[in-house]
């Protein structure tokens, strides 16, 4: 019913730490130690698998003086995403729409997905890669207004959503992948994986 359902099922009763940004790794004898951005250490790991966008993995590896061959050859394009909610039923889209519009590439009706319990109609709108790159550093509130205006024009409606949020997805689409399924250094038990592979 939600984007995190699959991961939550796999995690089960395991010890998962949220809101913990690791910035460096240290290898000591046969174990790994992790340091977060607040300086807190987490010790005693047999292996480390980095499953992040490749630029974020590169930053951690650089802070740790470690190399994984190929991680820096991957390229991404960004995407501004707009989330909308309407308190009453709307009939301008059943499920999804791909567009040739220069601003909006794709629209999905999230509330049409199976087992989504919702009292409102919800939509996700993705801007095109070029438009997103051209407007990448603008404030999210400005982006939300711009995308809502274009959404209303494209769908030919007067949109009055009860919720409007824009989210910058800096590493959205892989434009140059690694070309291998993952990276793994068996000598130190360190690996990396992701949609970039």
Helix content: 10-25%
H and E string = HEEEEHEEEEHHEEE
The N- to C-terminal Cα distance equals 27 Å
Alpha carbon gyration radius: 20 Å
- Overall pLDDT score: 89
Give the structural class: alpha+beta
Unreliable parts? none
Strand line-up of the largest beta sheet: 6-7-8-5-9
Which terms would index this structure?
4 helices; 197 residues; 35% strand; alpha+beta; 3-stranded antiparallel sheet; 5-stranded antiparallel sheet; single chain
Concise account of the structure shown:
With 197 residues, the chain is α+β, with helices and mostly antiparallel strands. The protein has helices at residues 5-11, 54-63, 129-134, 140-155; strands spanning 22-28, 31-36, 41-45, 48-50, 75-86, 96-98, 104-109, 121-127, 163-176, 183-185, 190-192.
